[in-house]
From TrEMBL:
Highest rank taxon of the organism: Bacteria
Signal sequence, renumbered to the chain: 1-22
Entry annotated with the keyword Signal: yes
Entry protein name: DUF3016 domain-containing protein
Pfam families: DUF3016
Keywords: Signal
Amino acid sequence: MKTLTKTSLLFTVALTVGAVMASAEEKSANVTVNFHESDKFTDVRTSLGSGTDEYYLKELRRHVEKLAAKQLAPGQKLEVTFTDIDLAGDYLPTPAKSQDVRIIKEIYLPRMKLSFRLLDETGKVISEGERRLSDMNFMSNINPIGRGEPLYYDKALLDDWIRKEFKS
């Protein structure tokens, strides 16, 4: 009898988790993020002299999909295309054998150029435009939560834009 109860409980939990995950995936399916000619972006790299880092692009894509999906009304779709990204911070020249470290200072603010289209459930364009995002006061953000997270300042810049642009 106890085994049946535990099995039922585990099955119910698995179904619930699956439904929540499917719902989140369905919502983020309404958000499409592209990177136009990412190899020409100003700075999306993990070290001085390296090319565009796909990990950073995936992190930014995932972040926009997750946050924007929460802001959209049911049936709406959002298409975002990044045309340039300059991550917060920069790499300074170091001796050849040392590891590169991204230095975060006020003078190395995050900047992004993007275009977007917001569509209703029929595919009609509700709004569209091009935006140049930057935050000269990015280090003054007093929210300490998440500061250890990769791309914290860059994600905060996107959070601010998404909340202002797509108020639900």
